């Protein structure tokens, strides 16, 4: 059974990805600040293959210890889904510097440091899958999301160079760039705002977590062994 770490596993895309991976026969090692009832239910359903580790990714100095704990308990890691992120919004000129620091630390520094330690297992195994969850905002831009967009663009650049570093060991590294999805993050968009986003989509709807998680499931599979250094946009065609 291949071990896959999913960060931000408790809800939204992370939860759906964890469900799909468990159903496909992977061992899921979920990491998030706190579990949700939905993730606890998943653990009960897959008691032998779904595990949870509480962790706050703003505490980057403890990431190496976290990885040691996980590998000691479960063995070497095959896959890593860097999904955890924070989403402070606001115009840059008035954004508090603590929010800027939080965005950069959690969205950029944490996944880079986590990947540093997890990739060591993959290098020993000479195989592995890394998926960095970015966003269409990193490429298209959006008013009030300049810093968030910068962090997601950074992950795209990280993917490109890391794919070259790890490729000789048959480790693939790709970016998933979701659009607006039907999650808690869009629950505050009501009325005309939500309708405008849907109208921009080729499919006349938002993407959903099933759409995005299905792409992740493919990228960690054997069928995706020849795909690396790429970005996959899942947005129901809103950027077409």
TrEMBL record:
Pfam families: adh_short_C2. The keyword Oxidoreductase applies. Keywords: Oxidoreductase. One of its GO terms (molecular function) is oxidoreductase activity. GO terms for biological process: monocarboxylic acid metabolic process. Coiled coil: none annotated. Belongs to the short-chain dehydrogenases/reductases (SDR) family. This is 3-oxoacyl-ACP reductase. It comes from Photobacterium jeanii.
């Amino acid at each position: 059974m291949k071990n896959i770490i999913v960060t931000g596993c408790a809800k939204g895309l992370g939860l759906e990805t964890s469900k799909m991976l468990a159903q496909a026969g992977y061992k899921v090692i979920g990491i998030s600040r706190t579990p949700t009832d939905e993730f606890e239910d998943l653990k009960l359903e897959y008691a032998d293959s779904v595990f949870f580790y509480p962790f706050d990714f703003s505490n980057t100095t403890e990431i190496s210890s976290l990885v040691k704990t996980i590998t000691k308990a479960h063995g070497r890691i095959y896959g890593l889904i860097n999904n955890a992120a924070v989403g402070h919004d606001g115009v840059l000129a008035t954004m508090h510097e603590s929010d800027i620091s939080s965005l950069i630390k959690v969205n950029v520094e944490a996944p880079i440091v986590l990947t540093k330690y997890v990739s060591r297992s993959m290098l020993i195994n000479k195989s592995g899958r890394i998926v960095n969850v970015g966003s269409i905002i990193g490429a298209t831009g959006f008013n009030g999301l300049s810093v968030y967009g910068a962090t997601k663009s950074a992950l795209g650049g990280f993917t490109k160079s890391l794919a070259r570093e790890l490729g000789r060991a048959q480790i693939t590294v790709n970016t998933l760039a979701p659009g607006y999805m039907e999650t808690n993050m869009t629950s505050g968009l009501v009325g005309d705002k939500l309708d405008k986003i849907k109208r921009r989509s080729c499919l006349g709807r938002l993407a959903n977590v099933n759409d995005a998680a299905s792409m992740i499931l493919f990228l960690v599979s054997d069928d995706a062994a020849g795909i690396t250094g790429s970005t996959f946009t899942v947005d129901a065609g809103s950027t077409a």
